[in-house]
Design goal:
Its EC number is 6.3.5.11. The active site is at 335 (nucleophile). By secondary structure, this protein is an alpha/beta fold. The protein folds into two domains: 5-228, Rossmann fold (3-Layer(aba) Sandwich), CATH 3.40.50.300; 251-459, Class I glutamine amidotransferase (GATase) domain (Rossmann fold), CATH 3.40.50.880. Helix content is 30%, strand content 27%. The chain has 13 helices and 25 strands. The chain has helices spanning 17-30, 45-54, 68-78, 106-112, 129-139, 157-171, 204-217, 220-228, 266-274, 308-313, 315-326, 336-341, 446-459, and strands at 5-10, 35-40, 59-61, 84-88, 117-122, 146-154, 175-180, 189-190, 193-194, 251-256, 261-263, 277-282, 296-299, 301-302, 331-334, 342-346, 352-354, 359-365, 371-379, 391-398, 400-401, 410-416, 420-426, 432-435, 438-439. The longest helix is centred in the middle third of the chain and has 15 residues, at 157-171.
Length: 460
C-alpha cells in the first residue's frame, strides 16, 4: 500500500511542533491535497488544531496503548482515501513510557509506520551548537531515519546560515526550512496545555497567516518528495479493529460534544460507528436533554471546570442523564465526564457547583497535576465496555481530585504504576462506568463491540 508520509518530531516539548505541524498540514490542504493528520501519544488538544487545519479528523497513534498490528491497521484505515499523512510527534523524539524502551515514543511510531522524520529544533539561544544536538538525534537510533530538519526561532539570515551549514555538513541531512523569531503565531495555553479549538471560535485568519508563513519559509516540495519516497506500507493481513464489510446500525449512542467536553480519541467514535452505532452529538452545557431514542451515552474528557455555572444551571440535562442510568442504559464517562457525573466540582478557589450527582463526593480542582502517565489496570466488574477480569491499558492526566472508591463500587484495580482502586461502577445493571482513565478502543477491539452490545441490549 502506497502511503506518502512523514513524521514531524521535536528535540523536546515546546520547540514548536504543533504550530509547525498545523501550518504544514494547512498549507498542504490549501494546495488541494487530501491530508490525513495524526498525533503521536495520548494527547487530545493538539489533534484539535490538526483537525481544524484539514476540516477533518486527526487520529492518535500510540505504541504503548495499541499493539503494533492494531496501530498499523488504524494508520492504514484512515489513509485509505488520502494523498499524504502528516504525523505530529509527542515530547522529544525518543521520549515515551517512563521506563526506557517502554514504548509510546515518536521514534517507536516512526519505525512502526516506516516513515521519514523531520526534526524541529528551537535555536533561539544557539547557532552552530544546533548541529551537535541534531547529530545526537540523528545517530541515537540507526533505525530512525531523520531525513530533514526545520529550525524555529531563527533571529537573522546570519543566524540561519550558521546553524544550517553546520547541520548539513555534520549530519548529512538537509535543513528544509525555518520559522523566524519575529513570527507571532504561538498558541494559547492553560493548565492542561493548549486551549482547545472548541473554545476558540473561527481560526481561519490564524490558519491563513500560518499557512503563508510556512509557504514562505519551508520547502513544501522537498517535504512532499520525502513523503513520496517512503517505503511501501506493509499491513497485517487480518483486520481486527474495523469490520471487513458494512455493519447495519444496531443502536444510538449519544456523545457529549461541546466547549466543555471534547477530549476524544476520534478512532473510538469511528470504531463505534463501524461496528453498528449511530452517533448523535449533544451538549451538556446547552441542550435540555439527551437526544431522542438514545440507547447509550459517552461523556469524554474536557474542561468542565471552566463551565461550572452553565453545567450546574442545566437542571434538565442532569435529570435526563440520571434517567438514562436509572433505565439501565449504558453510560460511559472518562475524566471530565467523571467530574460531571459526581456530586459536584469545587473550583480552584474552593467554590462548589452541583453536578449530576450519580457518583459520591466532590471533585476538587488542585493547584498542581494529580496524576499523569500510562496506566495498566484490570476490570473488577463487568461494565458497559469490559468484562470482569479484562486487562485495560489507558492514560491518566488530571488536575482534580476525588476520593478513591470503595471496593464495592470500584471499576478497576490499577496495577501499574502503583496499585490502587480507580473509577466507579454503579446503576441498576452496573450500567454506569465513570473513571479518570482515558481508554483508546484500539488497544482492545472488544471495548467498542461491548459498548454497542450493551447499548443494543438496553434498546431491546
Amino acid at each position: 500500500m502506497n502511503i506518502p508520509r512523514f513524521v514531524i518530531a521535536g528535540t523536546s516539548s515546546g520547540v514548536g511542533k504543533t504550530t509547525i505541524a498545523t501550518g504544514i498540514t494547512y498549507a498542504l490542504h490549501r494546495r488541494g491535497l487530501k491530508v490525513q493528520p495524526f498525533k503521536c501519544g495520548p494527547d487530545y488538544i493538539d489533534p484539535g488544531y490538526l483537525s481544524l487545519a484539514t476540516a477533518g479528523h486527526c487520529h492518535n497513534l500510540d505504541s504503548w496503548m495499541l499493539p503494533e498490528g492494531n496501530l498499523k491497521e488504524l494508520f492504514s484505515y484512515f489513509n485509505r482515501d488520502k494523498d499524504i499523512a502528516v504525523v505530529e510527534g509527542v515530547m522529544g523524539l525518543y521520549d515515551g513510557h517512563r521506563k526506557p524502551g517502554g514504548g509510546g515514543s515518536t521514534a517507536k511510531i516512526a519505525k512502526i509506520i516506516d516513515a521519514p522524520v523531520i526534526l524541529v529544533l528551537n535555536i533561539a539561544k544557539m547557532s552552530e551548537s544546533a548541529a551537535a544536538m541534531a547529530l545526537g538525534y540523528c545517530t541515537y537510533d540507526p533505525d530512525v531515519r531523520v531525513s530533514g530538519v526545520i529550525l524555529n526561532q531563527v533571529g537573522s539570515q546570519t543566524h540561519l546560515r550558521s546553524a544550517k551549514d553546520a547541520i548539513e555538513e555534520r549530519c548529512g541531512v538537509p535543513v528544509i526550512g525555518y520559522l523566524p523569531k519575529t513570527a507571532d503565531l504561538t498558541l494559547p495555553e492553560r493548565h492542561l496545555g493548549l486551549v482547545p479549538v472548541a473554545e476558540r471560535g473561527n481560526e481561519k485568519n490564524f490558519l491563513d497567516e500560518l499557512g503563508d508563513l510556512i509557504e514562505k519559509h519551508i520547502d513544501l516540495d522537498a517535504l512532499l518528495d520525502l513523503a513520496r519516497k517512503a517505503p511501501e506500507f506493509v499491513l497485517e493481513p487480518s483486520p481486527v479493529l474495523f469490520p471487513g464489510e458494512s455493519v447495519p446500525a444496531r443502536c444510538r449512542i449519544a456523545v457529549a460534544r461541546d466547549e466543555a467536553f471534547n477530549f476524544y480519541y476520534e478512532a473510538n467514535i469511528e470504531m463505534l460507528r463501524a461496528w453498528g452505532a449511530e452517533i448523535i452529538n449533544f451538549s451538556p452545557v446547552s441542550d435540555a436533554s439527551l437526544p431522542e431514542r438514545t440507547d447509550g451515552v459517552y461523556i469524554g474528557g474536557g474542561f468542565p471546570e471552566i463551565f461550572l455555572r452553565e453545567l450546574e444551571a442545566n437542571l434538565a440535562m442532569k435529570q435526563s442523564i440520571r434517567d438514562a442510568v436509572a433505565s439501565g442504559r449504558p453510560v460511559y464517562a472518562e475524566c471530565g465526564g467523571l467530574m460531571y457525573l459526581s456530586q459536584g466540582i469545587a473550583d480552584f478557589r474552593g467554590n462548589r457547583y452541583e453536578m449530576v450527582g450519580l457518583l459520591p463526593g466532590y471533585c476538587a480542582m488542585q493547584n498542581k497535576l494529580q496524576r499523569l502517565g500510562y496506566t495498566k489496570a484490570q476490570s473488577l466488574k463487568s461494565t458497559p465496555i469490559a468484562e470482569q477480569g479484562q486487562p485495560i491499558r489507558g492514560h491518566l492526566f488530571h488536575w482534580s481530585r476525588l476520593d478513591e472508591p470503595d471496593q464495592a463500587v470500584a471499576a478497576y484495580q490499577v496495577t501499574d504504576p502503583k496499585e490502587q482502586l480507580e473509577g466507579f461502577v454503579l446503576g441498576p445493571k452496573n450500567n454506569l462506568l465513570a473513571s479518570y482513565l482515558h481508554l483508546h478502543f484500539g488497544s482492545d477491539p472488544r471495548l467498542a463491540k461491548r459498548f454497542i452490545e450493551t447499548a443494543a441490549a438496553a434498546k431491546g
